[in-house]
C-alpha cells in the first residue's frame, strides 16, 4: 500500500509539473487591439493585425497584407497627432484627405453642412494631406483646390510632395498649406483616374461663430412632503407642477460649457444660430446645469 501511495504521488507531481511548464511556455501578447495566446515565442514577430483578426504574415493573403500595412501606417500617423482623424480612412477611403491646423487658440468645429470638413472660428491656416497616397500610387491620382466655389487656386495635378512618419517607415502625400481669409471656403478634391469611385473631398470654412440663443421651458414635479412620511402614505401627499424658464445667458460660464459639449453637436449652422444635439447625455447635462443655478 505504501509503494502504491508513493507511486500515485509521483504521477500526480509529474502531471502538475507538466501542466505548469505548459502554462509557463504560453504567453499572452497584444497584437493591434487584440490579445492572443502563443506557445511558441518565435511566432511573435510574424503575428499582425489586419483590421479584423490576428494573422501570420507568412501565410497571409494579398488582401490581408495590404490591410496589415494600411493599419500599421494609419496607426502610426494617428499617434503622431499632427492630422485630424487620420485613422478614419482605414474603413472608408473617402476620408483619406486629412487636415492639420495652425496650433493657436482658435476653435475648430467638425462640420457636415456642405460635406466632410471643418469650421474655423479664427485665423488659423490649414494644411492638407492624403494618408493613402505615396510615391508608389501617386501617378493614379489628380487633385485640385477651389476657393468659394468660384476660383480654382490649385489646378488639377498629381501629388508630388511626400511626408515621412517620424520613424521613417511610412510616407504619404502632402497637398499644400492655405492661409486664412475672412469668410473664405476652401474645397479640396482628389480622384483616382483609374477608378472614379475612389475619391475624397474636404471643405474648410473660416467663419465667426456667434453665440447661439438657447431658450425654453422645463416642466417638472415635486412633492409637498418629504422623508419617510411622504414615502409611506399614499394619496395624502399632493403633487405640484412647477415650470422654470431659462435662456442662454442664465448659464454660468455658458460659452465654456458649450465648447466642451462640442463633441456632442451633430449639426451647427452659424448662419441661423441653431444647434441640434446628438447624444442624450448632453441634454441631461443641460438640465443638471440648469438646476444647480
Q: How would you describe the overall organization of this protein?
A:
- It is a single chain.
- The chain is of the alpha+beta class.
- Helix content is 23%, strand content 37%.
- The protein folds into 3 domains: 2-60, no CATH class; 97-206, Immunoglobulin-like (Sandwich); 215-291, no CATH class.
- The protein has 5 helices and 18 strands.
- Mean pLDDT is 75; it is low at 228-243 and 246-293.
- The strands form 6 sheets. It has a 6-stranded mixed beta sheet, with no helix packed on it. It has a 4-stranded antiparallel beta sheet with strand order 5-8-12-11, with no helix packed on it. A two-stranded antiparallel ribbon has the order 1-2.
- The longest helix has 24 residues, at 2-25.
- The protein is elongated, with a radius of gyration of 30 Å.
- This is DUF3857 domain-containing protein.
Write the layout of secondary structure elements.
Elements: H1 2-25, E1 27-31, E2 34-38, E3 47-49, E4 54-56, H2 62-80, E5 97-101, E6 107-111, E7 117-121, E8 126-130, E9 141-147, E10 151-157, E11 162-164, E12 171-178, E13 185-192, E14 195-206, E15 215-223, H3 228-232, E16 239-247, H4 254-260, E17 265-269, E18 274-277, H5 280-291
Parallel strand pairs: 7-14
Antiparallel strand pairs: 1-2, 3-4, 5-8, 6-7, 8-12, 9-10, 9-13, 11-12, 13-14, 15-16, 17-18
CATH architecture of the largest domain: Sandwich
3D shape = elongated
> Which residues sit in consecutive blocks of at least 5 with pLDDT less than 50?
228-243, 246-293
Distance between the termini: 83 Å
Write down the secondary-structure element order. HEEEEHEEEEEEEEEEEHEHEEH
For the secondary structure, the number of strands is 18
**Rg calculated over all Cα atoms:** 30 Å
Helix content: 10-25%
CATH names the topology of the largest domain as Immunoglobulin-like
Strand order of the largest sheet: 6-7-14-13-9-10
Organism: Niabella ginsengisoli
Protein name: DUF3857 domain-containing protein
Amino acid at each position: 500500500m505504501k509503494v502504491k501511495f508513493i507511486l500515485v504521488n509521483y504521477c500526480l507531481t509529474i502531471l502538475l509539473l507538466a501542466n505548469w511548464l505548459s502554462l509557463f511556455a504560453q504567453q499572452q501578447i497584444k497584437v493591434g487591439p487584440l490579445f492572443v495566446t502563443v506557445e511558441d515565442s518565435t511566432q511573435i514577430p510574424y503575428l499582425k493585425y489586419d483590421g479584423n483578426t490576428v494573422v501570420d504574415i507568412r501565410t497571409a493573403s494579398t488582401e490581408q497584407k495590404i490591410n496589415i500595412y494600411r493599419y500599421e501606417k494609419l496607426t502610426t500617423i494617428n499617434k503622431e497627432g499632427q492630422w485630424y482623424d487620420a485613422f478614419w480612412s482605414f474603413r472608408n477611403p473617402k476620408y483619406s484627405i486629412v487636415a492639420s491646423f495652425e496650433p493657436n487658440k482658435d476653435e475648430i468645429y467638425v462640420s457636415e453642412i456642405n460635406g466632410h470638413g471643418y469650421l474655423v472660428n479664427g485665423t488659423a491656416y490649414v494644411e492638407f494631406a492624403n494618408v493613402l497616397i505615396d510615391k508608389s500610387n501617386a501617378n493614379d491620382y489628380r487633385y485640385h483646390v477651389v476657393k468659394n466655389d468660384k476660383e480654382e487656386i490649385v489646378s488639377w495635378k498629381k501629388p508630388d510632395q511626400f511626408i515621412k512618419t517620424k520613424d521613417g517607415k511610412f510616407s504619404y502625400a502632402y497637398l499644400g498649406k492655405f492661409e486664412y481669409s475672412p469668410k473664405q471656403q476652401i474645397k479640396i478634391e482628389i480622384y483616382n483616374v483609374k477608378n472614379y469611385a475612389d475619391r475624397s473631398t474636404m471643405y474648410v470654412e473660416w467663419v465667426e461663430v456667434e453665440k447661439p440663443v438657447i431658450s425654453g421651458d422645463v416642466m417638472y414635479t415635486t412633492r409637498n412632503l418629504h422623508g419617510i412620511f411622504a414615502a409611506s402614505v399614499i394619496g395624502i401627499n399632493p403633487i405640484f407642477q412647477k415650470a422654470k424658464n431659462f435662456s442662454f445667458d442664465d448659464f454660468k460660464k455658458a460659452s465654456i460649457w458649450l465648447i466642451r459639449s462640442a463633441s456632442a453637436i451633430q449639426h451647427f449652422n452659424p448662419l441661423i444660430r441653431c444647434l441640434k444635439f446628438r447624444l442624450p447625455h448632453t441634454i441631461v447635462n443641460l438640465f443638471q446645469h440648469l438646476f444647480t443655478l
